[in-house]
């Protein structure tokens, strides 16, 4: 899955500047505290991101990864709705605004954007970083608590990125229902874990019940063919590692792979992929094994061999998350 390099680089340098004022040890300590907080008792009653040091650490450590994951989800969505461009965007639980960067990367131009979050320091920092992106000139950064009282103004696109995992079940349901009531299209991204997948499927079911059509990653709006507990649908986005990453996590690889689950759905007609590659393709001598989720609501393994000529060459280039067969 490819992402605009320039937006990623602009984001990276804006985030790098943020850390300039923060001693490396302090930044690493803030990241470690946040990792522990996220591992602990979420959902919480109060924001985990409490002050600027927390938020700068969160942004520098996690925002490049959530940005790349949301870009991947939005690109798959855009492929399924090629005639559509969001005229407005609301990012709920938007934090420092990773999804606003992703939307402005996938669809050119600027649009009115609203970012809602209960953590004021995250919104303040998001506004600061967004100044580096000319497409994010028209963003309202507003404090709001997700819960049964959440009311969203009508908008074309709602994004919910890495937020459901911080909410109790009734608040997750209230958020998805509010998004479905306000938006023409909803894109939800969660960590690519079995729990993240389960929350994504719960949201997917609610969107379908609200009359939405699934545009991606699924080739259909019927039930997911994965037998619960046996597997989970997730994808992978490559993220360049920053020096802060290397400091906190060690290791020397210049990148890491962010695993994510997602669903993208719309009220209007969509053209989902005929099938999607749901695992990393296995390249063997003279053949490629592709695990596919298909329109017929089933998972299959297809073997593409040299005998298939052009299709074989395409299979060798196919990536986890791509549509199959490739669009020529
Ligand atoms: C893991 S961060 C994700 C931020 C951003 N969407 C991204 O993808 O980078 C989760 C965000 O959800 C916000 N959040 C969690 N619970 C919330 C609630 N009940 N009301 C409003 N915001 C909430 C947090 O403050 C935080 O900014």
Automatic annotation (TrEMBL):
Organism: Streptomyces griseoruber
Identification of the protein by name: rRNA methyltransferase
Residues forming coiled coils: none
Cellular component annotations (GO), alphabetically ordered: small ribosomal subunit
SUPFAM superfamilies in UniProt: S-adenosyl-L-methionine-dependent methyltransferases
Pfam families attached to this UniProt entry: Rsm22
Keyword vocabulary terms for this entry: Iron, Iron-sulfur, Metal-binding, Methyltransferase, Transferase, Transit peptide
GO biological process: methylation; translation
TM regions (residue ranges): none
InterPro entries: Mt_RNA_Methyltransferase (IPR052571), Ribosomal_Rsm22-like (IPR015324), SAM-dependent_MTases_sf (IPR029063)
One GO MF term: structural constituent of ribosome
